[in-house]
Amino acid sequence: MKKSVFFGAATVAALAAGAAAAGTLDDVKARGKLNCGVTTGLVGFAAPDANGEWKGFDVAVCRAVAAAVLDDPNAVEFVPTTGKTRFTALASGEIDMLARNTTWTFSRDVDLKFEFTGINYYDGQGFMVPKDLGVSSAKELDGATVCIQTGTTTELNLADFFRANNISYEPVPIETNAEAQQQYLAGACDVYTTDASGLAATRATFEDPSAHVVLPEIVSKEPLGPLVRHGDNEWGDLVRWTLNALITAEELGVTSANLAEMAASAGGNPEINRLLGTEGNLGEMLGLPADWAVKALAVGGNYGEIFEANIGEATPIGLARGLNAQWTDGGLLYSPPFR
Amino acid sequence: MSDTHAHSVAFVRKTEIPPAPPPASQTGIVKWLRENLFATWANGLLTIAALYVIYLVLSVILPWLFGGVWNTSSLAECREVLQGRVGGCFSVLTERWPQLIYGFTYPTDQYWRPNVAFLFMLVAIAPVLFFDLPRKLLYFTAAFPFVAYWLIWGGSILVPIVAAVGIIAGYFVFDRLNKSSFAAGFFGAIATAFVIWYLGGFLIPEDQSGAMLSPVPSRDLGGFMLNMMLGLTCVSLSLPLGIALALGRQSDMPFIKWICVIFIEFVRGVPLITLLFVASVMLAYLFPPGTTTDLFLRVVIMITMFSSAYIAEVIRGGLAALPKGQYEGADSLGLDYPQAMRLIILPQALKISIPGIVNIAVGLFKDTTLVSVISMFDVLGMIRGPILASTEWNGVYWELLGFASLLFFVTCYGISQYSQWLERRLATDHR
Fold first, then answer.
1. What is the annotated signal peptide range for this record (chain A) (predicted)?
2. A interface toward B at CB cutoff 8 Å?
3. Taking CB atoms and an 8 Å limit, are B391 and A39 in contact across chains?
């Protein structure tokens, strides 16, 4: 009895020591590769192209971190994870960070022992209806049939919204997004509801996208962001401030076009100088060279450029900035200062 | 008299009338149609209704199939080319062909390696499937697993060589010690193999970069290749394991019997998808960090466990179907247990079990698509994940899933046809 307790305690202690002693930053540097968890495929956010190269909005965060740490945006081992395997992959140390359109919630942050390092996309649940239906607001959807993925938070949000507005609906339960598209196009339901970014991506694949409208109501908060394990704050800081560097660069007008020029020598704006390492020692504090942010920005430009290239209005997905605009433009993106 | 009579008749036929063709309604296609399709009013109506349904189906499918587009680079371009006409967007198959077959991370310039392994596979399984072929070919079959491993995973050639040497040495030890006692031979062989593998481990260089074939980690395997590899490995491993389990379950030795019963009943009581999750998720917690087993190996172990339990039960059915006289006859000839099993019981029991075993093999092959839920990119995982999630091809469902079903249908139908040929070939009863 005593012996087994002793061995149990020893095992726990050994595991804890193993987890605490291993600095993720040192591990990544020694390995020469960043293990970054991504989705197995989500339009615009992460998907390999015809040459097997990963592209997308979440992928860009991984590449920026890899560039900041290892000076090589391709030194990333992308580990595809499903909704079910993502958290165990991170907790077991198989991946160093997870950038997989994961909603920041209380229980994931506190109970699952992860640390969200920021928000790279503010999403929310929306509704899509055919234009013929003549509906301009979700509150007019009394009695509508709604296609909804079972077992997700969207299902609960939907029930809350309709109850709060005292209107009724009839759910059509479906399993996957692909099934939902077919059901919706076949007319099995009047409304399709999921995250607004997903709605936009789905609508973009229709033969005639203009025959469908996404209603203005957003009925839930889905802040998506990269996350790391509890217990290695240095690594968490690094991921957090790499993301902040991308956001700040847009706010300060640092783009991939003028990056080289601005990074060459200290300019007139002290915050730009600190960000790009021509002044101060912010990089040193992170344990990185002074020009770490320059390398991260050189991959795909600042946050705005990454957004436009992957999911912005010029792409087939065609998402507007909306909540994801800078705070100076009426959005929610607000990076703490580089000082 | 006869003269007058002869003149009174105007015409006397000297030859036989050639047989007239049967009436048009009693011959050829008309007869067949009348008998089979329009025998009664009700049948006629049903025939017309069925023809109409077939017409409806074909009038949608055929233009879609033959009016398809094969060489655009995105779904939007497909729609531009089609201009609203009905037609499939098969360009996704041509553009993503390598990804559907090999997965998206297998090095592009190394595709010849799985191709060669596939050709070798055809040669290697031929003598196993068709026993009229020269028996010498079985040597190639024995070498195939090691050659295929080296071709697909690459790396140091010493790895498969050490593995093969360990097994050969184990066989010789077994052969030598088996004469005195089976147990000594069995455990001696296992011990020898492990000693050789352990010692051989020191020969294998840590740095694999200078190897003749560049190493490819298991995570980079994918596409239909992964389905084929999993299916072939698991079927060929689970058949001997299933036979052993079935015999173990019938054993008189309580310890062996109960191990087999518990294993079979436990594995059959758990869904395969649960076992796969255990393989991919739970084992990572159980092992200390950094000592994870290869994911492919973990999945192979789990699927093999699963299907061997089912095969064991099918073979037990075959064993139970044999009359008791067969066992007693074997005993009366003075054969010991291995001889009786090898020469009398198993050949008959396995022959009875063929349909059941093939049923499980086909099911297992299709079950390999379940690995897509643990983020391995088999052909279905490739379709549902990367290909449908690319901005170019989001929304192309029928073409991709139809292609996947075609691949599986061709393979499974082949297996089923082979089993029917095998049953005919082995038929010794006179029904």
1. 1-22
2. 18, 39-44, 46-52, 79-82, 84-85, 88-89, 92-94, 176, 178, 181-182, 201-202, 204-207, 315-317
3. no
